[in-house]
């Protein structure tokens, strides 16, 4: 087609330059992709090999590294804290993803009409998304403060007693879940709002004529047509619960007694505080394997999600 | 509004209002507590009623206990430095994926996609080794380097270039434009919306980043805002200076919140693109 246009324009030099260009497109592509590939190689591909190497060796005194077989994995699996972190991460994932998606969806449906009032409410819900997770955690130090903190102060007016939100091992993880839902729901709401805009209004009109109620319209039209958006949001939410632990660092440091330890925090703790790089690497290898499996399952979803807005 | 006359709709409206009310409380508290006089007495610290003469004491104390100018400077350097390199890498690669035909394009593309999942935070352990070997430990460049390639940015730019008709390029070539004229006069101006969208998402995520800088940076000279805030918060918490924490958090979050208030539409559009950073 390009050649057609050029033939019509009738400039032989351009034609010549073009066909020469077509032959060397691989070269040109390589040139354009090289800067990205260099950094991807250094900080995404190479680290996978690197961390496998780290997981299979151990540093002895005098920092010689020697082969250690699967020793690090054995030590990792024998570590009760790791098991606890894995379990916590599962609870944390379910506990944050289900309510934040439900709330995001409800807010999107409720606030979808483009009125000034709705726009204001959407802004309020979106603000936490822009806040650094560390800053959110700093605020929630006070929210969760027993007795005089924001939560207890107002719950007391409703007649509730004081709660040790971050200090009680049975509650602390749920407090972090609450913080995460607060922080992320607005983000997911955006995608649902965009998804809702793509649903033709006459579908609702037709359903209304057939006598479908609000709930029926939501279940029969909105929910099925938001399917791709939902899948996309689910993938982002999953990546988020694995890769964001800033609030754990600030609020609980994984405690009390490992009740809020999450996978990535465990890795950070082993590497940065215990200098046990072997164990940290073994845990990273398992996380990377998990994420790769997730990638294979969801690459198409991700790609579609990126497309649908553009 | 007549639509809301039936009871179910009223109930839904009430539930929505309740959610929004709860959602707004922490930030509302931040804005009020930051200006509340310190000697006000600890018990009513949670009150959301601004029944006091506003004071800047909390801000003064926050600014005193952490080197905020340096933290701002480092954070701005990290954000802009990362963005500058990213814009180069992602526009080049995005153009290649949108316009050029080459073998194994799909495969290479999926190789890029991988970074959406294997995000740098999960690779902190091996990347720390790499950064140290490169001599970048405890430097701002070390904080930035793992983000220089961005799969998300490449997709976004690929989409952007796909929306630009090829005719523009053809016409420029026919008019005898050199390649750099083609890039600077035609492609960059047309691709600007994509670059802006990517820029917003990139700056927000690096302004907010914490775990990786915490690993790489060891001296106060190279700390970013989030690290400064975390250590500052721990100090103020043990002294129960909640107003000072509110003020410090306000200082860290204010630039992005203000930018959002000013450019709301642009932000929302960018974040819709972002999905994955």
From TrEMBL, chain A:
A GO biological-process term: transmembrane transport
Membrane-spanning segments: 26-46, 90-111, 123-145, 225-243, 280-299
InterPro entries noted in UniProt: MetI-like, MetI-like_sf, UgpAE/MalFG_permease
Main location: membrane
Keywords for this protein: Cell membrane, Membrane, Transmembrane, Transmembrane helix, Transport
Membrane topology recorded in Swiss-Prot or TrEMBL: Multi-pass membrane protein
A single Gene Ontology CC term: plasma membrane
Name of the protein: ABC transporter permease
Organism: Thalassobaculum fulvum
